[in-house]
């Protein structure tokens, strides 16, 4: 769930954009998310999610996390129209032992910018592809209305990480969009092959799914 200033998205679908699945899967492989705290049924990438009907800002996230989950981490792509309250909520949940990874636009001049209050900042940067062409690190979100990528994101993206028990700001580092793409797409491809196994696909169909 996100949107950005200058967006041409239909107002009825503002704040309803979806994180690209490859990005979510790449981060989920590292943090093993147990909850998406800001989603809709149309945009959720985790089967355990909170919608605006629940109001994730006023409830305890721990009430929606299975009791057997150790080191819980929550995924969060908040409404970009009002990011501040979500950053404050992540800080509060961190004190309750719940970590979070937040995808937000690059805007360190904004009053909601967490600065050293968060555990870590990862700036998603551009990369050179296999043909030597430079590719932007900007994220193309998925339009909830059309299901297609939205081009023209005017800002870069950052991952803001809140780690329970971490009393200091670890720092800021750069992470290549190309590396995240490779990891995420590999996971998606592997899942496609597994689906073929379940359906007793032919070897040729399995190779096509993994391509």
Shape: globular
Q: How far apart are the termini?
A: 29 Å
Percentage of residues in strands: 15-25%
- The helicity comes to 25-40%
Total count of strands:
8
Return residue spans where pLDDT drops below 50 for at least 5 consecutive residues: 3-13, 201-211
Largest sheet, spatial ordering of strands? 1-2-3-7-4-8
Structural class comes to alpha/beta
Largest sheet: 6 strands, mixed
The radius of gyration over CA amounts to: 18 Å
What is the averaged pLDDT score? 86
Number of continuous helical runs: 4
State the order of secondary-structure elements, H for helix, E for strand: HEEHEEEEEEHH
Write the layout of secondary structure elements.
Elements: H1 21-31, E1 35-36, E2 73-76, H2 84-95, E3 99-105, E4 120-125, E5 127-128, E6 134-135, E7 157-162, E8 171-176, H3 177-198, H4 203-210
Parallel strand pairs: 1-2, 2-3, 4-8
Antiparallel strand pairs: 3-7, 4-7, 5-6
Structural features, described:
The chain is of the alpha/beta class. Helices cover 25% and strands 17% of the residues. Strands 1-2-3-7-4-8 form a 6-stranded mixed beta sheet. Strands 5-6 form a two-stranded antiparallel ribbon. The chain is globular and about 45 Å long. Residues 3-13 and 201-211 have low confidence and may be disordered.
List keywords for this structure.
single chain; 211 residues; alpha/beta; six-stranded mixed beta sheet; two-stranded antiparallel ribbon; 8 strands; 17% strand; disordered N terminus
Structure at a glance:
With about 210 residues, the chain is an alpha/beta fold.
